[in-house]
Amino acid sequence: MISRDQELWQAAAAGDRAAFHALVDQHAPTLFRTAMALCQSRSDAEDLCQETFIAAFRGLKGFRGGSSFKTWLTSILMRRAATMYRKQRYARQTISLHRDNGGNGHSGGDRDLFAEQLSVPSATTTVDQRLDLLEVIRSLAPDFHQVLVLREIDGMSYQEIADTLGIPRGTVESRLFRARAELRKRLSGY
What we know:
This protein is mostly helical. The protein folds into 2 domains: 4-89, Rna Polymerase Sigma Factor, Chain: A (Orthogonal Bundle); 123-186, Arc Repressor Mutant, subunit A (Orthogonal Bundle), CATH 1.10.10. The protein is 71% helix and 0% strand. The protein has helices at residues 4-13, 17-38, 42-59, 69-89, 108-118, 125-139, 142-153, 158-165, 169-186. α1 packs across α2 (17-38) and α3 crosses α4 (69-89).
């Protein structure tokens, strides 16, 4: 029995653009959620998803169906995210919380107002906790970060993660165990 994904990717590989758009519509929300967990900003996540779908479109004829289409797309996304991370590691910029008069039109009074606006407490503690958790997850080593996102945020099985990352299932289990332990350690005082 052929699944809907298989029908769509076969049609897309044969040149049916509508079939490819249907695949994008079906898998974009899950991929975007994964990208958001991997990236520092929404725009980076959007770029990552776009690059993933472009690479998938170009590689449709090479996909043989040895794994699910979702797993194949996620593996492309993970490789693109790793590339993006390596490129950005050296190009990260910092933003000063204190603006100076260096041509940006802010006076000392504006600086105090700007600092005061940044120190206003968040509307809800829950949102802060989620943001803190995402930040801690993002700070994990890439191997731990990847398996944790794929399992806990994307809901993939151990085998799907192994297929996506191209590693043995036992390695997935080991990395996930160590990632959870590291997460517990970092959040122990929370």
